[in-house]
Amino acid sequence: MTKKELEAYAALVLIKTAQICEPFSADWLKDKPDLQIGNFGIEVTEAIDKKDGEQRQIDSEILNCETYENANTYINNLRYPRKYRSETKQLPGSERFSLMSGGGYNDKKPLTLIVNAIQDKSRKFLKYPDHKMFSRRGLYISDQELRPCLQLLDIESILKATKDSVFDVVFVHQPHRLIVVEKDDELTKEYPFDKINRIDAICEAKRVCGSPDYEICCERAKAYRESNDY
Questions:
Q1: Is residue 58 part of a domain?
Q2: DSSP state, 84?
Q3: Domain ranges, residue 183
Q4: d(Cα 95, Cα 40) in Å, to the nearest integer?
Q5: 33: cis peptide before it, omega within 30°?
Q6: Which residues is 74 bridged to in the sheet?
Q7: Residue 89 neighbours by CB under 8 Å, 6+ apart
Q8: What is the CA angle 1-19-117, rounded to 5?
Q9: What's the mean pLDDT in 190-204?
Q10: What backbone phi and psi angles, to 5 degrees, belong to 116?
Q11: What is the pLDDT of residues 78-102, one digit of tens each?
Q12: Domain count of the chain?
């Protein structure tokens, strides 16, 4: 997903889990912070390291290319094209393309990436010119890597990082669940978020953002619904 798509996706996830109790509006998608919903300002980020972040940035630029040929030209003009891990795939009977992510498994401890994200975004939030206008401040962290240690997340460290930050609430979105950590609550909450909900939210995010691969996303969602997995 592009940065804008991720921000729309975050808002849709928070609506589906009743963390935001009003219909989605494209007017929420702004900057510094990323989501501005009345007096609720939410930063949106991912729990990824620098290398993966650079890969996602290149992916975002390639998705702006109009054709399969243009996308491959962009890749070939990269400083180190052979190190680029994603793959373009031309759509049958079309000049358009899809992008198959090559991010792979991330063996870094998710806790370190999450705590670092809270600390880094807290510092940045305080520098925003209008940060004082928000009476409630939140951080949404997308952590979508499947890891063996998924169930062993150290919530205490995340709660401490939240208490030491500018944020009133931190949302950690992992595969199949959203973890909600409130600054003034020692008890965290978890909300299930299965694969079909994730696919639906991604498709809707791409639709509201006018993404070129929206139709491809819808086709994948349909195929998943018709499969034995659903």
A1: no
A2: -
A3: 3-49+106-195
A4: 42
A5: yes
A6: none
A7: 97, 98, 99, 100
A8: 50
A9: 92
A10: -60, -40
A11: 877 777 767 888 878 888 877 776 5
A12: 1
28 part of a folded domain: yes
Q: Which residues have a Cβ under 8 Å from the Cβ of 115 and sit 6 or more positions away?
A: 157, 158, 161
Tell whether the model's pLDDT for residue 208 goes beyond 90: yes
Measuring CA to CA, which residue among 51, 150, 68, 155 is closest to residue 109? Answer: 150
Query: In this structure, is residue 44 part of a structural domain?
Result: yes
Q: Which residues contact residue 70 at a Cβ distance below 8 angstroms, ignoring those fewer than 6 apart?
A: none
- Spatial neighbors of 172 by CB under 8 A, at least 6 apart, are 47, 114, 141, 143, 153, 158, 178, 179, 181
Percent helix, strand and coil across the chain, each to the nearest 5: 45, 20, 35
In a domain, 40, yes or no: yes
Place of tokens 């040929």: 69
- Round to whole Å and give the CA distance between 88 and 221: 20
Residue 132 sits in a domain whose CATH number is: 3.40.1350
Q: Measure the CA–CA gap between 20 and 98, rounded to whole angstroms.
A: 32
For tokens 């007017």, what's the residue? 27
The rounded distance, in Å, linking the Cα atoms of 2 and 43 is: 15
Got the DSSP string for 12-56? HHHHHTTSS-S---GGGB-SSSSEEETTEEEEEEE---HHHHHHH
Question: Taking the model in full, what pTM does it have?
Answer: 0.76
